[in-house]
């Protein structure tokens, strides 16, 4: 194994082989003039190897991804056997502070990449991330959650034409892989254009920490690190309990009526067409509509809000599996 000698210069700081440093990803102060420190934890081995970037908190309300990276750091999993691990637990610190998805300027950070040096606050953060952090990474794992009240089964996302990532996805071992299109001006799209491989992890819902989702993210990260030769032998990496399901296409099943809603199947379930998967009632006990699956497939997202309106998304169900 070759001994690494070159210092890594990132965000204006030199990180030498064998060092762990916390550097500051600062862009702007709060409106009170108080400085905002956005810690980036960089750990390097003395031995050469790949650089893996873990990111979370692009949306300020997606705290489960923050918890996953927090555990990677707290348990020392981010101390690599070879190579370098960069951890950014909270990118949108402004949204995280204010318990909001967006930046104070109302912009969604994940819709302004690659950003600019003279644009909005969100755009400036995007630019700095893309130009000062991402170039160092060989692989990126970006942690997200579902939206408000909509619980995602742990899953990885990337496009159909990135099937070279299938092997790595199987190593990660999330229950599902959902082939999904890149969104305009998203972090994932920009990384793809730069030739950077990125696994986007979705799991849980906003403002919520779920142990199953957290364990899926932490264990998947350990498996990838072991696969790359980066996981120290002190950490154990178990094989996934079930084989990953690759989903080619899926669709949302929406509410036919407004009312009080309750799902009757857990997220991740396999259902058959016409199975009862939930019901919608009124507050007065006069109405009870049974929601039946419109097609057979795996349920990868469930609406957990108690009140829904006609047209609201209730379930996200696979319609076509890879090769089927």
Describe the protein in words.
The structure is a single chain. The protein is of the alpha+beta class and 324 residues long. It folds into two domains: 8-228, 3-Layer(aba) Sandwich (Aminopeptidase); 250-321, OB fold (Dihydrolipoamide Acetyltransferase, E2P) (Beta Barrel). The chain has six helices and 18 strands. The strands form three sheets. A five-stranded mixed beta barrel has the order 8-9-11-18-16. It has a four-stranded antiparallel beta sheet with strand order 15-14-12-17, with no helix packed on it. It is globular, with a radius of gyration of 21 Å.
Give a quick set of tags describing it.
Aminopeptidase, 324 residues, 2 domains, Succinylglutamate desuccinylase/aspartoacylase family protein, alpha+beta, OB fold (Dihydrolipoamide Acetyltransferase, E2P), four-stranded antiparallel β-sheet, N-alpha-Ac-DABA_deacetylase, AstE_AspA_cat, hydrolase activity, acting on carbon-nitrogen (but not peptide) bonds, in linear amides, hydrolase, 31% strand, five-stranded mixed β-barrel, single chain, 19% helix
